[in-house]
Amino acid sequence: GVKSDKAIRKDAVGLLEFVISASPEFFYENLDKEKFDLMTMERNKKQLDDIFKNQLNNENLEKWLLVVREYFKNEFGEKNVLNITLHLDEKTPHCHVAIAPITPDGRLCAKEIFTPENATRWQDTIAVACKDLGLSRGLKDSEKLHTSSHSHNEMLIKSATEKTGNRACQN
């Protein structure tokens, strides 16, 4: 946990959580991206389990995990990285990273750590760290709206259904 000689405010933010991933094509070999994008954990669990079991590139996953761990330790200091957990509970592997928001002078201050400028810099610098893996940064200054994966999947299915006359969800 966070240790400090100073009194910590009751409303202080004591943890920042990051979720980090890469494109599914990086993790899975011979992935049919169009078909994969239309799948949901609710509707296509068996097919997604088969993709995970048969197409997961373990070497890419392990290399990526090493880069992620090193990046966060270097960026925030090893003692401030509280936890890095690999999650395989959704379509694409991802990590949840818990960071103690400690300033360089030792204060607990999330608003000084988590700024729009830092968020942009982190996206830029993790992309540089992952470059040797063949990964590149996502779209910068994107106007795209961020939606829940459920809402996004529903929109994709609706769009595909309209285009194909309701064949999108057939196996």
Description of the molecule:
There is one protein chain. With 171 residues, this protein is of the alpha+beta class. The protein has helices spanning 24-27, 33-38, 45-55, 58-76, 110-113, 116-130, 149-164; strands at residues 16-21, 81-87, 94-99. Strands 1-3-2 form a three-stranded antiparallel sheet, covered by helices on one side.
Shape: elongated
SS content category: alpha+beta
**Distance from first to last alpha carbon:** 48 Å
Largest sheet, described in full?
3 strands, antiparallel
Provide the low-confidence segments as ranges: 163-171
Element-by-element helix/strand order: EHHHHEEHHH
Number of helices, where a helix is a run of at least 4 consecutive DSSP H or I residues: 7
Relative strand content: 5-15%
Let me know the average pLDDT: 84
Number of strands: 3
Spatial strand sequence of the major β-sheet: 1-3-2
How large, in whole angstroms, is the Cα Rg?
19 Å
Short recap of the structure:
This protein is an alpha+beta fold and 171 residues long. Helices cover 44% and strands 11% of the residues.
